Amino acid sequence: MQATATKRQTNVDSIRAAIAAKMDSASFGSWIAPLNFDIDADTLVLTAHNQFAADFIRGVYTNILSDAAAEFGLNMRLVVRGAAAVATPSNDNRAVTFTPAPAPHAAATAVEFDAFVASDENAFVLSACKKIASGPAAFSPLYIYGPAGCGKTLLAECIRSASNGRTLMMTGGQFVSEFARSLREHSVFAFKDFCRKCDTFILDDVQALAGKRATTEEFLQLIMDLRAAGKNVVLTANAAPAALTGLDRRLQALLASGLVADVVAPTAHVRRVMLTRAGVDMETAMQLTDRIAANGHLVAGVATKMKTYAELMGTRVDMTTATRLLADTLEKSKTPLAMVKTMCDKMGVSYDAVCGAGRSRTLVRARQIMMAALKAATKLSLTEIGRLVGDRDHATVLYAIAQVEKLKAADLMVAAEIDQMIAVCR
What we know:
CATH topology of the largest domain: Rossmann fold
Strand content: 5-15%
Structural class: alpha/beta
Number of domains: 4
Order of helices and strands: HHEEHHEHEHEHHEHEHEHHHHHHHHHH
Largest sheet: 5 strands, parallel
Radius of gyration: 31 Å
Number of strands: 8
Low-confidence stretches: 85-94
Shape: elongated
Number of helices: 20
CATH superfamily of the largest domain: P-loop containing nucleotide triphosphate hydrolases
CATH architecture of the largest domain: 3-Layer(aba) Sandwich
Mean pLDDT: 84
């Protein structure tokens, strides 16, 4: 009896080692190692702690487990602790299909690449998107990242519209929910087939997968399978692969293995073009541009509000009306006096002292930096700059700017501080 038990334990250990050899250590440690291994007659019985783990293992690792058991002349059965045994489904000639839930973000009409207003900084990523839409690309997966409102989803929609063959586009949240549903409905294999039977696969907002271990495992395998089949993969996220938190390092490495391209936020020129395309007249658009944050969603909202107002009220929207309509949206314009007072706060000196007659080293240095920053960031004349810091004359301003230039060349810390003050004024 004891010899039989010892032999059985030896076989179990050998089977466990054989399975571990067929998988990466992270997947084995996460999903297979916690299972209880036992041999019942000619069957390897694996017991999972809960139904979710059993469904996931059955959907992802059945072939590996069955092959390892077969090497020892055994069948394989997966059961849940405390539940009736659930045999591995056999082929009973019933077709299992998967139908995804309707995608709420799906565009009703095709989106052309001309809809994306590209600045010089975004010319590269736009070219990459056009290339991958034209057919199989050697640099797949294309990973596009940038801040909210920079146009990542718009580019993904453009690729979907322009690509030939079957294109599947999902959001990260949709992928998580559809995979979880396939586990509940025991249609994981149908879900896998659904995702793989495409020529171009697009996932918008990869960061939604963070912390979803089972979903991440499936997604990792999906990307590897699509790449091996020569299919195009397009991914978007709010950060570069290495900066994504909550994702497996293997997935981060895979995301970075293709072409990683960033999208910069809309520049002033792009914001102006977006407004004029929406029907805002050029004069108003030029005045609004510098007072709207660099966020494509925000610019689109501004354009929609102005266009709707013009249609409903039957009147042209001028800058006065736009300022009233967008009071909760527009950034307050910076006056020269406000710039000086902000710089005073940044440098820890009072505005009254800067404008006074004090000649302490700290005050003189602060005045000089402010004068140089105003000269670099604004179109104010030297006389106007001098007036803002206590009615200093033209010659004093010229001398201050020359002194600051010398300090910048000799001291990197001073140069950084001056750059910061220039940014305050812009």
